[in-house]
Design brief:
Elements lengths: L1 H35 L8 H24 L7 H54 L1
């Protein structure tokens, strides 16, 4: 019984440490994304993406028939908006990943604390049974 309690406590400590690492890594990941899209604030990322996506769709609708027919090449505006949409989309994905890592870290911390408390409870029960 004591061995099981020690194993549960060790697993809880490991989960707690991993949760703390995840939380700190998520904060640094968001900082790196914010640096890469500066001067655009992180809070405006979704709005800017939607704006660029709408502009790119308008230009695409106007140019696509001629491009498909082989009568024209994509304009510089179309290429610029496509590249900007792609970059902003990747930044959005990275922010989403950082948020997921933060959530996972918080869950790991809670799980770790629960395992530690459960392991200590098992250990107390094993000691009182002796």
């Amino acid at each position: 019984m004591r061995v099981m309690a020690v194993i549960v406590v060790i697993l809880g400590l490991a989960s707690l440490v991993m949760g703390i690492l995840f939380v700190t890594q998520s904060a640094s990941a968001k900082d790196k994304v914010a640096e890469s899209i500066a001067p655009l604030p992180l809070a405006q990322l979704d709005a800017k993406y939607d704006e660029v996506k709408a502009k790119q769709a308008q230009v695409k609708m106007a140019e696509e028939p001629k491009i498909q027919a082989g009568q024209a090449q994509p304009s510089a505006t179309y290429n610029y908006l496509t590249i900007q949409k792609t970059g902003l989309g990747l930044a959005r994905a990275n922010v989403g990943t950082a948020d997921f890592v933060l959530t996972t870290g918080i869950i790991d911390i809670i799980l770790g604390l629960g395992l530690i408390l459960a392991g200590l409870g098992i250990l107390r029960k094993a000691q009182s049974a002796d």
